[in-house]
């Protein structure tokens, strides 16, 4: 929904970025290529072509040309997204919450950095706040997709938390969510909410459509946290998604707080 408020040129740039991210995810997740690691190497090589002024071969990378040329987006966040999907091919579980945060540094936070560059608002302070928001969004997505991820051989709930609450493989592979697994999901949900609290000042540091759009991203995370709680953290075998009305009201609330909190001209 946040993209709907954006000017056409910014929306077009962001669509190319999200198209690239989706393409890289599909390479790793959907089994559409015979050798995902080799394909990810090809994506990295294509990014190198793009950033040295040569023509990329892959359409998803070639589509990034306008945003790279006009918004001066650095190569690093794109390469980190590729590395996240490369890690998905070799790492299926994360021992600690700290380990999971390190994964989010590759899988989620680069998207926020790219978005800030597209808006022309990429400062160290804003990127640090963006990291909190993007990590929170990744965590709540992991909470929503526990069963689906496990079916693909991946568990994004920290193993230390699973052990703490006594969860085993049968809990993750079942058709329902036992109470002990709900407790693990509840812990991750609380952590995500805390990260959103820490990152929300990003909204007040911006003005105009950037503030409106980023408020939408924060609101999406908050509305999903609320949906998970309303569902009692029962996430296996069902889709837990925020209602559109709740999402809109949360968006307006985040935007109102951001408007009161700053004039959008401060440099973080």
From TrEMBL:
The residue stretches assigned to a coiled coil in this entry are none
- Please, which domain of life does this record's source organism belong to? Bacteria
Q: Name one GO molecular function term.
A: geranylgeranyl diphosphate synthase activity
PANTHER family noted in UniProt: BIFUNCTIONAL LYCOPENE CYCLASE/PHYTOENE SYNTHASE
Question: In its UniProt entry, what is this protein called?
Answer: Squalene synthase HpnC
């Amino acid at each position: 929904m946040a993209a709907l408020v954006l000017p056409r040129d910014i929306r077009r740039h962001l669509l190319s970025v999200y198209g690239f991210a989706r393409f890289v995810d599909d390479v790793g997740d959907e089994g559409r290529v015979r050798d995902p690691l080799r394909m990810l190497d090809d994506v990295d090589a294509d990014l190198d072509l793009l950033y040295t002024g040569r023509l990329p071969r892959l359409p998803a990378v070639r589509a990034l040309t306008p945003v790279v040329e006009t918004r001066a987006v650095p190569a690093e966040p794109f390469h980190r997204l590729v590395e996240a999907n490369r890690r998905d091919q070799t790492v299926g579980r994360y021992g600690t919450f700290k380990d999971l945060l390190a994964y989010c540094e590759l899988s989620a936070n680069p998207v926020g950095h790219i978005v800030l560059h597209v808006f022309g608002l990429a400062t160290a302070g804003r990127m640090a706040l963006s990291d909190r928001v993007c990590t929170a969004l990744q965590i709540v997505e992991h909470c929503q997709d526990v069963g689906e991820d496990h079916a693909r051989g991946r568990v994004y709930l920290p193993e230390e938390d699973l052990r703490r609450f006594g969860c085993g493989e049968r809990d993750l592979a079942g058709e329902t969510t036992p109470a002990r697994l709900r407790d693990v999901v509840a812990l991750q949900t609380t952590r995500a909410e805390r990260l959103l609290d820490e990152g929300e000042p990003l909204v007040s540091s911006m003005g105009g459509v950037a503030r409106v759009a980023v408020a939408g991203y924060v609101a999406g995370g908050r509305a999903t946290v609320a949906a998970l709680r309303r569902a009692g953290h029962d996430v296996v075998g069902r889709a837990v998604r925020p209602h559109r009305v709740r999402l809109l009201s949360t968006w307006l609330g985040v935007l109102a707080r951001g408007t009161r909190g700053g004039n959008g001209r401060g440099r973080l």
